[in-house]
Specification:
Number of strands: 2
Strand content: under 5%
Distance between the termini: 46 Å
Bound molecules: zinc ion
Helix content: 55-70%
Order of helices and strands: HHEHHHHEHHHH
Radius of gyration: 19 Å
Structural class: mainly alpha
Number of domains: 1
Strand order of the largest sheet: 1-2
Number of helices: 10
Length: 261
């Protein structure tokens, strides 16, 4: 991988601004392209092939414009935090590594699972806090203005929420040694799972609910219930915190069965 960008001096306003613009554009295009493809290839196809899988059939037309604008602002903030992360990496503050020999190979899956667990835990509790009656209307309401969600809802957050969501990744790599490839994989999973969970179409097989491993993964049915009911299903990737804290919706199993029939 070409790492020559690490040799540039980002304390200079020109280079900082250049990388900020490049990162923001990449992040925004990634959102637009992946959301657009998912809508065409998955949602539209399943609408005709298996309509039972469609969870959000009604989607207000004016909603998409609002969501794309909020997502554009989120992309700028993610880009800004991305540059700060590069600067921290340059100065040796992070535990990111690129040499595969730096840690044993068995450490790779451990770092991956640990990062996901930390991220899940952080998100679940931040999300509960964002729903506090005194906080909700100032920040998280922006995301919940989309009751019927779509692929375009995936990055639609108030700027404070975008920052809260983004800073966990630099915080994790300050502590957990992580190969650059693992970090990139986590960034891809973040984007893809946000799209899957908001797309309004269930793609996971009905048999997963009875599978001891797959039942922990959150899909569109799970997160859709969060947007419609507000007080249940706070998880990000996994269901375990909702199960441990008894915040999983009672309607979930019944909905899941209806889709799988
Ligand atoms: Zn919420
Ligand atoms: Zn959501």
């Amino acid at each position: 991988m070409d790492l020559t960008f690490l040799e540039k001096d980002y304390t200079l306003p020109g280079t900082f601004f250049y990388l900020f613009v490049v990162f923001s554009i990449i992040i925004f295009l990634r959102y637009v392209i992946m959301s657009g493809l998912y809508q065409r290839l998955i949602y539209d196809r399943l609408s005709s092939l298996n309509p039972k899988r469609i969870i959000s059939p009604k989607y207000p037309k004016t909603q998409r414009r609002r969501e794309v604008i909020w997502s554009g602002i989120s992309s700028l903030l993610f880009g800004f935090i991305g540059v700060l992360m590069i600067m921290a990496w340059q100065r040796g503050y992070t535990a990111i590594y690129v040499d595969w020999q730096a840690y044993p190979m068995w450490y790779i899956p451990i770092s991956f699972v640990s990062a996901l667990f930390i991220h899940e835990t952080y998100y679940y509790w931040i999300h509960r806090w964002l729903h506090h009656p005194k906080i909700y209307k100032y920040i998280h309401k922006v995301h919940h203005d989309s009751i019927s969600t779509s692929v375009w809802t995936s990055f639609s957050f108030h700027p404070i929420e975008s920052i809260l969501q983004a800073i966990i990744i630099p915080l994790i790599v300050l502590i957990v040694p992580m190969h650059l490839a693992v970090l990139l994989l986590i960034l891809i999973i973040m984007t893809v799972s946000a799209i899957i969970n908001h797309a309004g179409v269930e793609i996971y097989p009905a048999s997963w609910r009875a599978n001891n491993v797959m039942k922990w993964i959150i899909g569109s049915t799970h997160h859709d219930l969060h947007h419609r009911r507000f007080t249940k299903n706070f998880g990000l990737y996994f269901t375990f915190w909702d199960i441990w804290m008894e915040t999983e919706s009672d309607e979930f199993d019944e909905r899941w069965e209806r889709i799988g029939k």
